[in-house]
Amino acid sequence: MAKKKITKKNNNKTNNKKAIEEKEEIQVKKDKKDKKKKKGKKSEKELFSTTEVVIITLVALCVGIFSGTFITMKASEKTNSKEVQEFITTYSTLTNNYYKKVSKKKLIQAAINGMFDYLGDPHSIYMDEEETKAFNTTMDGSYKGIGATIQETDDGIKIVGIFDKSPAKKAGLKVNDIIVKVNGKETKDKTADETVALIKDKDTTKITIKRNDEEKTYKIKLEVVEIPSVESEIIEKNGKKVGVITLSVFAKNTSDQFKKELSVLEKEEIDSLIIDVRGNTGGYLDQASNIISNFMDSSHVIYQVEKKGVKTKYYSTGKENKKYKIAILVNSGSASASEILAAAFKDSYGAEVVGTVTYGKGTVQTAVKLESGSSIKYTIESWLTPKGEFINEKGINPTIEEELNEEYYDDPSNEKDNQLQRALEELTKSN
Q1: Residue among 272, 348, 365, 419 flagged as catalytic
Q2: I need a labelling partner for 175 at 20 to 30 A (CA). Which of 69, 182, 245, 396 fits?
Q3: Cβ-count burial 347-374 (b if 16+ within 10 Å, e if not)
């Protein structure tokens, strides 16, 4: 397993805010009646966006769709309210009479951003079309492309990662290859985004790379590629096998990936399990619920939600209770769905939570796709731990507090990861 580097950025709440705004959990209530029935039964969830070093997954982005997670706004909806008419009058006046040329698109975007600024909620935001596409790709957990990531460097567009079983891997591309041409067009003066656009232009693309001063051309057919968000390994300590599962995000397919990795670990007869959500800023709420339900039966509350003063408890959908010990690794970059998972294991399973206080995001968002291809994301409710604690702006306190050693940043290995080692000691110690 490739070891995940925990950067200093992930231990800083201020620096994490932007990432957390970009990868919130989005929970849409699909069927209110089903939830009422369930309540009656039991009375009662380093990516594509960067600024300094652009890492772009080589994708042929489809039209951004949040696959059922959006509420479609009715185009025919009209309102004659005084406030809306004032907005229309202001917009019309500025676009027609202002002494300088005004971009209608940017004026509307500014107006929408102004609405969100008024809310004062960092998790309710407006995303333009490109941001929406990137967000969709991340949260969908798959895309049509060649399955590689690239980075702009002084040497050119460099391949910095290749997904397993991807078209890029099958074709023979390797990490550190420099992409010099795509479909015969040079990439020397192009950005990573522009290179992606060339690759997605056709279903079958020709990529010319430079490797050891030698150029080679590969013909690659674009396919739907699954983005890995789960990694696992087994660490032996004190004569016991400890499974370690690392979650980078809660994408649409994360719980399926998790279940497969857990099955592999259990076939190896692990004695205990560590779930690492350090730096994981969240994702789909239902994915966190599905993962938790692998370990607890339906008698366990896994989280609560509160909306307009009404609280509702949500139970695991699992059918069995695991017997082995579990520890959750967290830090200040663990937010949203990661905190729901950590709280559920802490309160309802009795797991140890090892690390530092989590980010503290106790709200749930939904999203609406706009006709322009952009989208808005806004808070619809707050969530609480199984015991009813509201952790917003407070975070979850670990049961075992452990700051990450400075040495780890220079050598991100299991041996230097003192938080991991502390969890291993706790799980393998003699009772």
Answers
A1: 365
A2: 245
A3: bbbebbbbbbbbbbbbbbbbbebbeeeb
Strands (E), 238-309: 240-247, 272-276, 301-307
pLDDT beyond 80 at 13:
no
Q: 269-299 burial, b for 16+ CB within 10 Å, e for fewer?
A: ebbbbbbbbbbbbbbbbbbbbbbbbbbbeee
Q: Which residue has the tokens 């050119």?
A: 156
Q: Are 183 and 198 in contact (CB under 8 A)?
A: yes
Q: What number of H helices and E strands is found in the chain? A: 12, 19
Q: Judge whether 298 counts as a catalytic residue.
A: no
Q: Give the strand pairing for 301-307 and 240-247.
A: unpaired
Exactly one of 133, 361, 369, 377 is catalytic; which is it? 361
Quote the tokens at residue 33. 């009646």
Tokens for 295? Answer: 């370990």
- Cβ-proximal residues to 182 (8 Å cutoff; 6+ apart), any chain: 195, 198, 199, 205, 206, 207, 208
pLDDT at 392 (0 to 100): 96
How many whole angstroms from its chain centre is CA 398? 22
Q: How far is CA 245 from CA 265, 273, 322, 342, in A?
A: 9, 8, 16, 14
CB count within 10 Å of CB 405 equals: 14
What is the layout of strands, in order, in the sheet containing 272-276?
230-237, 240-247, 272-276, 325-330, 352-355, 400-401
Note the pTM of the prediction, 2 decimals.
Answer: 0.73
Q: Where are the beta strands (DSSP E) in 70-172?
A: 125-127, 142-153, 156-162
Q: Catalytic residue at 365?
A: yes
291-308 pLDDT, tens digit per residue, is: 999 999 999 999 999 999
CA distance linking residue 133 with residue 124, whole number of Å:
17
Active-site hit among 272, 336, 338, 419: 336
Q: Mean pLDDT across the stretch 229-254?
A: 96
Find the radius of gyration of the CA atoms of the chain: 24
Any idea which residue has 């032996």 for tokens? 236
361 is a catalytic site residue: yes
